[in-house]
Design a protein that fits this description.
With 510 residues, this protein is mainly alpha-helical. The chain contains 19 helices and eleven strands. Helix 9 crosses helix 11 and helix 16 packs across helix 19. It starts with a strand and ends with a helix. The protein binds glutamic acid (GLU). Glutamic acid binds next to loops.
């Protein structure tokens, strides 16, 4: 049977890294098994809906390159894909549960429920409700409902077939956690919208979901879901709950303010493939025996900073390799991964072009008046800066002199020159001579303006000057960039081109 998965966010805000990780694992498993996945919008809590959230989630998935097979604006046989458009279905199942005695109407007011809960707590009971409405006769409940009295439908957890054991592809042997469930959880609210539990069980069945992959925070609800499947006599899907992600300080990532929205990562210039690589491997690496006990990381499990493309992640994905431990999502690892993804991208003309395009807004923002921000020029810039670039947004700060004239009055530039001068006792006249000689050579450049010819020219200039390379190069670097470190001088000249290089040197030779 083909696998079918679903990523089921609630449109209560922007997509977080944790949500993206869930979508990613759904995608990896679906693709690994030749299956498909659905984007299902769980919008049954009308008080928490945020306008624009669905669009934001879709945009974030599109940025990451995780393409769902069915969902909003991708019609399929299991639609509609918004739960708010599937209410009849939930009512049908709630009725079935009412009829079989697995659910009942509850007319208790909020105040009454609060009193009951307090009383139960005082007596040391674990129960959260006294089931008083369970004892209403069917006639009375139906009469009160017809009379327009507000009610919810509760699950009746006292009248169940044998409770199925909890099972999970990541957490495997789970203890029975029924005791921590609320008493007779609400399935259908007073506004006739389902709660998450009813809606997700009904939809997972109706849509034919084979594997439910979601965050660990839903693990406590699993016993209730299993009860619902049993009460409705529905076949169960497989479940895989994904361990919570942590910040480096051990706090829950979902609790972090800001800085966790996927689209912020997009805006700050991170590579989508690097973010996926980072998220995928954060909890990957423990190979478990099929009995379910966690053993040592397997020798061939990828390390958390191994460079992997989406295709490679798909090929190697296996729930058995996921750890049950909460995993730290370390931003330093993203930097490492991103830098290497960028370097790989630059190996192809297409990748280079896409990097240049994405670097452009950062450069234009930093240098609004610079005429040197075209994509072809930026292709040369990013290519030259690779290996130094952690993120495309670093382009302006790494090499400002490629976009505007260097500021020779800045302390860094002054100090560079002072240091060489002191070291070799260089006079102003000698400095001008070194530069002038270089200008002549550059003007005569007949072999072309490429990095290797330029390197040769610099070598000749240095030999003529009588200065050691370690004294000669800083002089030229100072003249061209005003900055201590950067790519090789010949590469920098190649990017700047003959006119700008010569003009800069001429200004300093005077
Ligand atoms: N709507 C739930 C959420 O946003 C998804 C839970 C599930 O995947 O079953 O967390």
């Amino acid at each position: 049977m083909a696998t079918l998965l679903r990523f089921a966010p609630s449109p209560t805000g922007a997509l977080h890294l944790g949500g993206l990780r869930t979508a990613l694992y759904n995608h990896l498993f679906a693709r690994r098994t030749g299956g498909k996945w659905i984007l299902r919008i769980e919008d049954t809590d009308r008080t928490r809906a945020v306008p624009g959230a669905v669009e934001g989630i879709s945009n974030a998935l599109a940025w990451a390159g995780l393409e769902y097979d069915f969902g909003p604006s991708k019609v399929g046989p299991h639609g509609p894909y918004f739960q708010s458009e599937r209410l009849d279905l939930y009512h049908k199942y709630a009725d079935r549960l009412l009829q079989s005695g697995h659910a009942y109407r509850c007319f208790c007011s909020k105040d009454k429920l609060a009193d009951v809960r307090e009383r139960l707590q005082r007596t040391g009971s674990r129960a959260t409700y006294d089931k008083s409405c369970l004892h209403l006769t069917e006639e009375e409940a139906a009469r009160r409902a017809r009379a327009g009295e507000s009610y919810v439908i509760r699950f009746n957890d006292s009248n169940l077939p044998v409770r199925p054991p909890s099972h999970d592809l990541v957490f495997s042997g789970l203890k029975d956690a029924h005791d921590s469930l609320p008493t007779d959880p609400v399935l259908l609210k007073a506004d006739k919208f389902p709660t998450y539990h009813l809606a997700s069980v009904v939809d997972d069945f109706e849509m034919g979901i084979t594997h439910v992959v979601r965050g660990e925070e839903w693990l406590p609800s699993l016993p209730l879901h299993l009860d619902l499947y049993a009460a409705l006599s529905l076949p169960m899907p497989h479940f895989a709950h994904l361990p919570i992600l942590l910040n480096p300080d051990g706090s829950k990532m979902s609790k972090r303010k800001g800085d966790v929205h996927v689209l912020d990562y997009a805006q700050r210039g991170w590579e989508p493939n690097a973010v996926l690589n980072w998220l995928a491997l954060a909890g990957w690496g423990a190979q478990r025996a099929s009995t379910g006990s966690t053993s040592h990381p397997s020798a061939d499990a990828p390390s958390s900073t191994q460079l992997m493309s989406l295709e490679q992640l798909i090929q190697q994905f296996d729930f058995n390799s996921l750890t049950q431990r909460r995993s730290i999502l370390d931003p330093l690892k993203l930097e490492h991964i991103n830098k290497h993804h960028l370097m790989q991208l630059m190996l192809t003309p297409h990748g280079l072009n896409s990097s240049a395009q994405r670097a452009q807004p950062f450069v234009q923002k930093a240098f609004p008046n610079s005429p040197f921000t075209s994509v072809p020029y930026l292709e040369r810039v990013v290519f030259t800066l690779q290996g130094r670039l952690t993120n495309l947004s670093d382009v302006p700060s790494l090499a400002p002199y490629l976009f505007e004239e260097p500021d020779y009055t800045a302390e860094e530039a002054q100090k560079m020159l002072r240091t060489v001068r002191q070291r070799v006792g260089l006079t102003d006249a000698q400095y001008a001579e070194v530069i002038s000689d270089l200008i002549v050579r550059l003007r005569q450049a007949s072999t072309g303006w490429d990095a290797s010819s330029l390197a040769q020219m610099l070598h000749d200039g240095q030999a003529t000057s009588g200065l050691a390379p370690k004294d000669f190069m800083p002089i030229v670097r100072h003249a061209l960039t005003g900055t201590k470190s950067g790519p090789a001088i010949a590469d920098t000249m190649a990017v700047l081109g003959p006119e700008r290089t010569i003009a800069r040197l001429e200004r300093l030779a005077k």
